[in-house]
Write a structure and sequence with these properties.
Blueprint lengths: L3 E5 L2 E4 L3 E6 L7 H5 L3 E7 L8 H11 L8 E6 L5 H20 L12 H21 L8
Amino acid sequence: MPPFIPIIPTLNLDEAEIELSFIRSSGPGGQNVNKVATAVQLRFDARRSKSLPDAVASRLIKLAGKRATIAGEIVITANQFRTQEMNRKDAVARLVELIHQAAVPPKKRVKTKPSRSARKDRTDSKVKRSAVKGRRRVSPKDWD
């Protein structure tokens, strides 16, 4: 793998900032599961990363949700495949996808107002609905 992982044309991730450790995978698999550490746990310190701008790092931590620690470290566990290499590629790909999503700044919301005809349509439908419900009402003189 190259020393830098491309995210977007203007952003590259330094591979040295990613810490990989291999752990035993859970689930079925017989004796192989008990003796081979095929699952990968990827750790990436987003808050202290020199590769990411501060805005991207804060969006990344927010996007990561429960995968982010209080210290700002992203932890991704990959155990989908039976080999270390495939799980390593999967974990790195998931991190790259997460950073890619965080690298795109959110669009500014433009406030809009409903048009005059939309406001009129809304009030007309409310009046109609009120009339329908009013006709359902039972008057006190009909109680006997």
